[in-house]
Design goal:
Elements: H1 2-11, E1 74-78, E2 81-85, E3 90-94, E4 106-113, E5 116-124, E6 135-141, E7 147-154, H2 157-163, E8 165-169
Length: 171
């Protein structure tokens, strides 16, 4: 009997005792956090390089400039004043045509240095004197036949104000 019992015990299902697992459970692995995208460099537009402007062309003159007495000799009128340029390098100013010879309020000498007319006072009557102060002017020869006297530099302001202007030829 004993043998039967042993057999039965040996063939039966043994009572199971829970066996602890041999491996440690692995905690769930973290899902990798996606990295933020790296900043893609935005191309900087090229900075405009300042270019030098070409030199400004000197404007061409719309009129020629007198360079000799022969171009202006004669009697001219501006407003109510007359001026007469003589061949000898003098000019007279008066407030009436018939006073140019006998009652000029100013007599001056002039000479050309290129396109510049240099003037000096010879005598005055009834107007401020300029003494030995010189004046430098340009005489523009206009298409209309008029001349324009332009003060370039004059140390005598009353004369500069008196002589500058556009003159019509007296016919």
């Amino acid at each position: 009997m004993t043998l039967v019992l042993l057999l039965l015990i040996g063939c039966g299902t043994p009572a199971t005792t829970p066996v602890p697992p041999t491996t440690t459970p692995v905690p769930p692995t973290a899902t990798p956090t996606p990295k933020p995208p790296t900043a893609t460099p935005i191309p900087v537009p090229p900075t405009a390089t300042p270019t030098q402007k070409p030199p400004t062309a000197t404007p061409t003159q719309a009129f020629p400039l007198a360079t000799s007495a022969e171009e202006i000799v004669g009697t001219w009128l501006v407003g109510r004043y007359y001026i007469r340029f003589d061949k000898d390098g003098t000019f007279r100013q008066a407030d009436a045509l018939d006073k140019l010879d006998s009652q000029s309020y100013a007599i001056s000498s002039y000479q050309f240095e290129g396109t510049k007319m240099v003037i000096t006072e010879v005598s005055v009557s009834g107007v401020p004197t300029c003494g030995k102060k010189i004046g430098i002017y340009e005489i523009q020869l206009l298409e209309s036949g008029n001349i324009r006297v332009v003060a370039i530099k004059d140390q005598c302001a009353p004369r500069a104000g008196d002589i500058a202007g556009e003159y019509k030829p007296v016919r």
